[in-house]
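Morning, I've got a small favour to ask if you have a moment. It would help a lot if you went through both lines with me. Thanks so much in advance, here it is.

***
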Amino acid sequence: MSIAYRPSHADATYDMKYGVRAVQGGGRSSARETIGRVASGAIAKKILKHFSGTEVLAYVSQVHQVVLPDGSVYHDTVTLDQIESNIVRCPHPEYAEKMIAAIDAVRTRGDSIGGVVTCIVRNAPRGLGSPVFDKLEAELAKAVMSLPATKGFEFGSGFAGTFLTGSEHNDEFFTDEHGTIRTRTNRSGGIQGGISNGEIINMRVAFKPTATISKKQHTVTREKKEIELLARGRHDPCVVPR
């Protein structure tokens, strides 16, 4: 494997650009790269919670063909304990078991699968973000898409919003009992015009199937020789719960 490019991995492009490659675990393209983000993110979450009451939560909403139905998780009330109650970090017990079964099944075949992580931000301050180049959703997308294995990003209604008309999609305003301007729905995902509006920010991130699998695949070496590759060692059948 040290001389062969792993299909859909960063080996080839790193070598093409820099003339070097990481053959031990993937280097900077490995999920291990996120350890610094995990540590700093844990501190940032505590700071946000302390100073503004802001909560950031993420859970697995899809593993391969096992998809949580819309409305099955209440973003106003879902808790970290519910999310962490199982190894796939899905707050819905029934679907968590289905996801675990799907991962176990693909593991026995030496293959891998992907999925979707939903992230929500409650009590986000209003006014985060700026028009045009520094829109909040653009900043979030850049941060999220820099994670290994990410292949898609959407917030609010996302791509499903394309099936709606304007009258169906618009979030109408109202004044609540505290005199605060709110929206009756949240298809905007808490962001309008690139600026947070005080509603729950929600986004979804798609992760591809793990590139390193225990199945024979056709590839080439740096010397352009065509060979068959069978990866060995430990690898995740699904990176999504991580």
Residues 45 and 51 are 10 Å apart (CA to CA). The chain has a mean pLDDT of 93. The chain has one domain: 35-229.
